[in-house]
Design goal:
This protein is mainly alpha-helical. The protein has one domain.
């Protein structure tokens, strides 16, 4: 039997991804990107923010409360 190791993104790596997506969005808006590109960026940004929330919960919620 083999154990599968799940690698979850860290809070720091997610924060860096979010910074990159925000910079990308600001750049796209500055150059007049089309609505579709902005929407794809927005959706990705929201997903990374949700991932960050989950990572913070994993980091700071006591294990016994997290299991409940």
């Amino acid at each position: 039997m083999s154990a599968e190791i799940l690698h979850l993104p860290t809070v720091e790596s997610l924060a860096e991804e979010i910074r990159g997506l925000v910079y990308e969005r600001q750049t796209m808006r500055a150059v007049g990107a089309d609505r579709g590109a902005l929407e794809r960026n927005r959706v990705e940004l929201v997903q990374r923010q949700q991932d960050l929330v989950e990572a913070l919960i994993r980091r700071y919620l006591p294990a016994d409360l997290h299991a409940a």
